[in-house]
Protein 1
Amino acid sequence: MTALPLDYWLTAGLLLVGLYGLIASPNLLRKLMSLNILQASIIVFFIQLGAKTGAAPPFAPEHAEVVAADYVNPLPQTLMLTAIVVGVATTGLALALLIGIHRHFGTLDEADILRRLRE
Amino acid sequence: MRDHLPLLAIAVPLTAAMIAPLLGRSSVALARGLAILASLLTLAAALGALAASLAAGPVRYALAGWPPPFGIELVVDPLSGSVASLVAAIATLVAVWGVPSPDRPGGGVFWALFLLLVAGLVGIAVTGDLFNLFVFLEISALAGYALLGAHDARSRVAGFRYLLVGTVAGSFYLLGVGYLYALTGTLNMADMAARLPAHAGSPLVTLGVALIVAGLAAKSALFPLHGWLPDAYAYAPPAVVAFVAAVASKVSVYALIRILFDVVGSAGPLSTLLGILGWTAAAASVAGAGMAIAQQDFRRLLAYSSVSQMGYIFLGLAIGNEAAFTGALLHLVSHAVMKANLFLVAGGVLWRRGGCRLDDFGGLSRQMPVTTTALAVTALSMAGLPPTAGFFSKYYLVLGAIQEGAWWWLGAIVLSTLLGIAYLLGVLERAWFGERASDEVGGELPPRLLVPIVTLTAAVLAIGLFNQDLVEVVLRHALPASVR
Amino acid sequence: MIDLAYRPVAAVLVSLLAVPLIVASRRRPGLRETWTFLAAAAKLGLVASMLPTVIGGERVDAAPLELAPGFALHLRADAFGIVFATLASALWLVTSVYSVGYMRAGKEPRQTGYFVAFAVCLSATIGIALAANLVTFLVFYEVLTVATYPLVIHSRSPEAKRAGRRYLAYTMLAGQALLVAVVWTAAIAPGEELRAGGFLAGRAGPAVLVAIFVLFMIGCGAKAALLPLHGWLPDAMIAPTPVSALLHAVAVVKAGVFGCLRIVGWVFGIDLMSKLGLDLALAVLAGTTILVGSVRALAQDELKRRLAYSTVSQLSYIVLGAALGSAPAIAGAVFHMVAHGFMKITLFFCAGAIHARHHLSRISELKGLGRRMPLTFGAFTLGALGLAGTPLLAGFVSKWQLGIGALDASQPIYVAVLLTSGLLNLAYFFPIVRAAFFDGPTATETQEAGPLLTGPLLLTAAAALLLGIFPDAVASFHSLAWQVAGEIASSPPQLAGGAP
């Protein structure tokens, strides 16, 4: 892998942003968005694993001679396709739950909701 | 046929999950019947694979014919076969019960989610690929969030918070796998086990393993990452929780065992990790039991009890010798059975008496003698009284702790047992010797609800009396090679 | 006839088999009680049938049942075990008769549950008596704890539930200590069974062995009402009198001292006890319990509570004998298990008869009652004199042996302890007798409790007298006691805490 270390720092920063938002946001929807950011950072991380400067996309004519180092590693990208789908499904389910919560409580503020839950 | 059993164990519930909504349109009973049938077939496949693995070595199946390490491989060995069978068995019994509640049996979509959860959990058990495990982990997690969350407003909140924690946990797992993949270039568990020792001591390994462990620990509700559990278990219908509580966290523990002991092994910082796990587990067992005592709602009590009991399993892993590990595996099986039974009893009480608080248990023995006897046997087993299943797993754990000289952890086991006795016998006292509720309608639970409860109770006694056979025939072979 | 090898198992199981029969006949009290009697008689018969073999010096060994590696249930009747088993089953038969009378007189509710719990308790007790290894002992010990709980809280009153919770707190704590001790022993001495003379010598360093001993003593000591774990016993007197009589004067507490003696003689061995200095410590603890129990008994006005504290004190005679370790001390301890059983149960039967017939339970209310219940109070007097160690009664035999044993072990101070305790016994029993016979209004007619209540107490009082005059008259208890001493006692003279 010949990606610059700076990319990884940025990815780490993205993860921390997501994590911070998840923990610190008082609003449930914002927590969900932070979760998406966190998931996105991990996806980016994987893609970076497979990236190489100056490499070609992983397509080759059939029966051609393939030198692996010239091509981007396709496996992490494949894995992340799955991960993206998982992320979408999770977000969909989470939004469905949030709609139901909002309908009942009228708010998406976590502190409010928890307080009313305990009563 | 033998080689296809692992695939069948996943494919059957998965296919049934897709058919269930269609059947549900015409009749919910049909959907439920499909669920029962699918669970039984899954159980048969899992048991068959387990038996085959005990007889002739692990059963391997390469998905779509792509050979490992490039393709995804399914592997059933005694450990994963036991876990898969456990999942399928409890799924069958809960399906017979008729979730989410006896008089509101849930639509076709509900059974679809149920079967997806079964498929996901069995998938985690039988997969031999780290990323594939992530996929099944998320499948089961999503199905779990939906099953636990989709009832009333409170369950939605609990479900959403569970979703947040669970997704972060899954993401951390994925990140950890990413590190290990970056290092070794493979995702196949067996292949990675062969390649990792070359990188032993590398910070990437430490970080990757730590992330994987953190993720799976959160899914197992290991203290202090257990916050999502009490609410999620308390607000969902008890019968749903019976399945999720009994089985989902056990499968996460299985994944942890598999990765820590078989994949990573000595290549990673195993003793440090196990030390940390041990201390958190000791805290979990005591804190969980302590919090359970304070609960007035039976389901919350059971939820905190789960936190405490999972602590025992992790303690057994952390102590690490053969006796303690056997105790951990035995407890994994027996706790699944006991917890499922207790939640089904809770469901029965909720159905009959309209509430599931400790106050609602007064005079239960008069109205529902069979159910109360089942409750008594299971509670005594959880408290660790001989000659039940819970006693024997505790015996192994204590033996292991003494052999290793883990005195503080032994103290934690004893203390949490005493606390456990306090809250469990408190419930029993009310049920057998408490005041009768003034307006009681109906008598014992109907057969459909009683059969799963009685079956599970019999299992509790059987595991206790025949634990020798269980250990000798199955569990001994399920121990990781490094522990034997 | 059942083969000899199966009889230990059969003796344990017979009352369990009666449980479903008792439950099935819950609406027909006569039938239900018949099942109880039959089970009790069968149990006694099975146990007694093993007596000749054991007296002859052999043991009756049942096949072990392995439940886990290193964890086998194994029953075996040796001299010590058969003494306890015979005592428990004989007294169960008597108590069953008494229970029927008591329950009928008081029109008590929930009798089915009562008889079921009793049956399970007796199974567990025989299991404890005939346990051949620590693990079997532990299993039945815990079962006994759980099975006695419903009997303690029988009346369901708030006080009963409080007493029950207290009982469980003590016994569950003890159970955990016992579990750790048993597992630890299994860890350092795998595969070992109870063996006369012990098997722990040399298995681990002194610190470990002392720690294990302390855990064992907590485990057994709670049931044995050893200081400071005795607190549950007086509160447990809230249970119906037959429960107090059999369980808390015979089965449960005797299981505790039985356990203590088994640990001393068959796990550690007298010599190891002496080498570790444990015998001295145990003797001091027992002696203190004897005296404190007697003193506290003086302060009680509730008759059953006074009897409870007396039990606390008397049980430690047995523990003291175990600690002293010399042959007469051991023999005295074992015989005292029997003697105290008969005498104390007589006293409890009397208390119950008084309560059933006259609804009185306080000592201050008993003035003149002796003239109206001469048989009952006559039996009471015999029992009380026996406990104080009066000659011609069973209590004297054991006390005498214990005294000789103390001298043999070069611990004369314990003779003083025994004598003091005897005087205290008189101090707290004599006023009751005197007030009953010599105070209060004169009687016009006898008002004994019914025959089902009076019969048993006369029987046990007579037995106490018989055993005092002919110690071997019943089940050769005395010879068996000396047989036990022969198995485990140290050779005299024994210097406690010092070199052999």
Protein 2
Amino acid sequence: MIDAGQIAGNGLDFKPKIQGNIPRGLTLLAVIIIIMILTIILGNIVYNGVGTINWEFLSHPPENGMESGGIFPAIFGTVFLVILMVIAVIPVGVFTAIYLHEYTSPVSRLTRLIRVAINNLAGVPSIVFGLFGLGFFIAFIGGGLDSIFYKSEGPVWGQPAIIWASLTLALLTLPVVIISTEEAIRTIPRELIEASYALGGTKLQTIFRIIIPQALPGILTGSILAVSRGAGEVAPIMFTGAAYYLPYLPSKLNDQFMEMGYHIFVMATQSPDIEATKPILYGTVLVLLILTFMLNFIAIYLRSGMRRRRASLQ
Amino acid sequence: MKELKFKPKSRLWEFLGEKFIAVNAFVALIAIILIFIFIFKEAVPILTDPEIQEEVTLEKMVFKQEFYEGRDAKWSWQPNSEVPKYSLFALFIGTLKAAIIAMFFAVPLGIGAAIYSSEFAGKRIREIIKPVIELLAGIPSVVLGFFALIILATFLQNLFGLTFRLNALNAGIALGIAIIPIIFTVAEDAMTSVPRSLREAATALGANQWQVSLTVVLPAALPGISAGVVLGFGRAIGETMIVLMASGNAAIISANFLDSVRTFSATIAAELAEVVFGSGHYSVLFFIGSLLFAFTFIINFSGDILLTRIKSKFQGKMN
């Protein structure tokens, strides 16, 4: 009997010896272990944290050296921080994606260079962003502003502040926004854009009346993913504005701020009595997780709608 | 229809609009150049400033030093001691140790799950795996650090009967959890993008499902799978919060994976806040930042090359 595989020769000699069950089982085991890891992490945090969360916890500042009270200033600081970040990152990210699609050819050297830059920006370690924020935003820009406008006073802008932290985070999340906006632009039927040009629409008119409205779900997805990423990053804001404890809420752009991720880090590593802070620590972790997961779920939902539309186009 | 009536607008607006959009598009490029300049700028004094060179030089950071007369030369990281010691080698070993453990943990799980998802899983199981991976990717690194510090460390301590809770193994496993998603995603993408014609040809030649995967799909997707591993390694080297919280942060040079380690990234995070602006120590921290930046640059570049190769290969074959 001739085995079909032998016809192929050179290394493609298929003998029905190894059945699919062992490799199938091994790879399934990997999946199961991953699911178990996720379950253990989430289960532990929810189990230990859920008892702490109540209205008082969410609406009051910390007391007794963080051993009681709530985390309101950290929540407020996180929200303030990501709002500033979004204001900075969305226009830049969206316009970059539009520029790459509407103004340049995808094979031009410039486009490739910008793409390389975006890819690399996405890969730079977050701690390096922190160094950059300190060296560029605080020392160079902030220090520069101070030496021009506020010579006699102490540092006004040349110090850690919420504006510098949010700009650092905006750079970190820029690739996320660009990539999801691009994905959305690709789902727009080309005919729609060409129809706009055919009707005499200029490039700007086409961009603002066709491309941006049509790409809105993708832009929204990118913004949400950026917020979820930004809300969880600690390394870039450690030196650029986050504070361990502040008796007041940030109200100006050059104020320092408390932030949930940093709050977790400080409580977990520098608390003199870890057992006493544990309930609050778990509660904070749970709030941060709920926040980021909620954002991720919305983003995934929006994106799957977009992908369906794209699939139906093809 | 009223809304779509285009009025001829002035060319000036078009021109300014284009320039404005172009400026935005250059932000990413300018940012990467500025990061390069501002990180390296602060590291340069180590090479040029004679005052700082008295305290620290390239040679002192790399080779064994005789810090006290009559004692053995050794590598040591103690920037705040009376005789400041800036041996990057000690940190390098720590970084590598944590990353290697992370890879041992994450590569089999990430690639294994990717193979299952792409080759064996039905549509329904895939719809479980994908969100699980996205959830895992969505956990902030500070939360993973917290998990390793509070829960995993205690578990490992009881398991191995350790004196010290925080060590390379603890940090490495948590790092591994953080990089599973990236390895999975890139590897799975590569395998699902293998053209169906290749699979069908192998099946027609009499291969069963596993043989198709092993002899056709895996070799074809290998550049993509390697890209996932390479990118995961890059992330493991650069990740900060997890190692800062879970590794113990003592720069011990040993082959024992149950010893504490101090990594490059954690050193910057732990010391930058207290350092004197413009001092030797400050320069060394930025020098470490430059190393991390250069390293991830190379890693991303290699990952890019591997992914471009697989893309052009499959697109070439499909036509």
